Amino acid sequence: MRHVIVTGGAGLIGNSLIRKLLHENVEVTVIDNFSRGIKSSLQTLPIKIVDADLLNSDSWSTIFADTDTVFHLAAKIGSIDYLHGSLERELSTLDGNSTIDRNVFHACVENEVPRVVYTSSVSVYPLSRQMLPHAKLREDDLEPVNPDGGYGWAKLLGERALNLMPHAKIGIARIFITYGPYCSLSDTAHVIPSLIKKAIAYPKEKFTVWGNGEQSRTFMYIDDCVDALLLLEKRATSPPIIVNVGSTEEISIRDLVNAVIKISGKSITPEFDETKQVGPTSRIPIIEKASELGWTPKVPLREGLPKVYDWIDNTLEAGKHG
Q1: Which CATH class is domain 3-183+219-248+283-298?
Q2: Residue 55 near residue 106 (C-beta atoms within 8 A)
Q3: H or E element: which one contains 173?
Q4: Cα–Cα–Cα angle for 227, 230, 234, nearest 5°?
Q5: Backbone phi and psi for residue 39, each to the nearest 5 degrees, phi listed first
Q6: How far apart are CA 246 and CA 218, in angstroms?
Q7: Which of 62, 65, 103, 214 has its CA at 20 to 30 Å from residue 298's CA atom?
Q8: Do 115 and 170 touch, CB atoms closer than 8 A?
Q9: What backbone torsions phi and psi does residue 297 show, to the nearest 5 degrees?
Q10: Residue 165 and residue 235 in contact, taking contact as beta carbons nearer than 8 Å
Q11: Does the pTM exceed 0.85?
């Protein structure tokens, strides 16, 4: 039986990827820092769970022996404020994610893992490009080199490190914003779960949106993201193959807010706070390279958004009752 390791498996992408792997009769080991207080639905699945601090490789690196593929998803992620709210946060993200990558990559080399799939990010692209309206990004648009803060630098360094990894076939997915069930509902959550939580809490809490709402994004449903990662496992190469993985369905944050409000069924007047940090103006992937491999996103926002709204609503309700 094929043995696969998923680092950071308790997160949004990991939860769905693991379930898809189990349908393919794969032996799965998940490595994550469950001691951080993650309440994980993985506990009921037929998988091996390793509770480990990926910033310290002493306790888990030997687990990579006899592994066919490593899906390296683990990273310090979160909202704009959490990652970019101060220079200290930028430095912490750069240092933490670079350390996690280094430890995982060394474990792969030491144990001669033959395949690695790495989740990189749209954040590797130059900020000057991302500040343009309706900016479309292709894989070779890396000049001038100026990633988005510590998070973007860490991901770009991770990509460069993988180019130096011997004896392994590697697939790198530059992932654009992904949403779906099992997303984080913490105070550092991404934009879609954050807006949905505000709609659910209204009118007990204000519905405040950072920025003027004119910045645009694309949002990929989790099933499409997982399909891309599984395809990259099969198409991994040496040197690595790098592809954009994201939806091409552009939407402004203002229109996204209106879509969430419509699903809520409430009469909500959002308040836009233009004093808050909002990040890049636009991020739209060109996915020709992924399409040539046989992947295109299938779930439009109008289908995925109501599913996630219901999942978050049910999850928050269940949390009230223990």
Answers
A1: alpha beta
A2: no
A3: strand 169-175
A4: 135
A5: -90, 105
A6: 7
A7: 214
A8: yes
A9: -65, 145
A10: no
A11: yes
Q: Which two tokens stand for residue 236?
A: 């991994």
**What is the b/e burial string over 157-174, where b = at least 16 CB atoms within 10 angstroms of the residue's CB?**
bbbeebeebeebbbbbbb
Max CA distance (Å), the chain: 58
Q: Please tell me the distance from the alpha carbon of residue 247 to that of residue 251, in angstroms, as a whole number.
A: 11
Can you give the residue ranges of every domain in the chain?
3-183+219-248+283-298
Count of residues making up the chain: 322
> What are the mean pLDDT values of the chain's consecutive 10-residue runs (322 residues total)?
94 94 94 69 89 84 94 85 78 94 96 97 94 94 94 96 94 97 84 96 94 93 98 97 98 97 96 83 96 98 98 87 46
What's the distance, CA 22 to chain centroid? 20
DSSP conformational letter for 11: S
Q: Are 9 and 33 in contact (CB under 8 A)?
A: no
Q: Is the dihedral of CA 140, 119, 155, 67 positive or negative?
A: negative
Identify the CA nearest to 137 among candidates 250, 241, 284.
284
Q: Are 223 and 154 in contact (CB under 8 A)?
A: no
Q: Where are the beta strands (DSSP E) in 8-109?
A: 27-32, 48-51, 69-72
User: What pLDDT sits at residue 2?
Assistant: 92
Q: CA triplet 35, 222, 297: central angle to 5 degrees?
A: 155
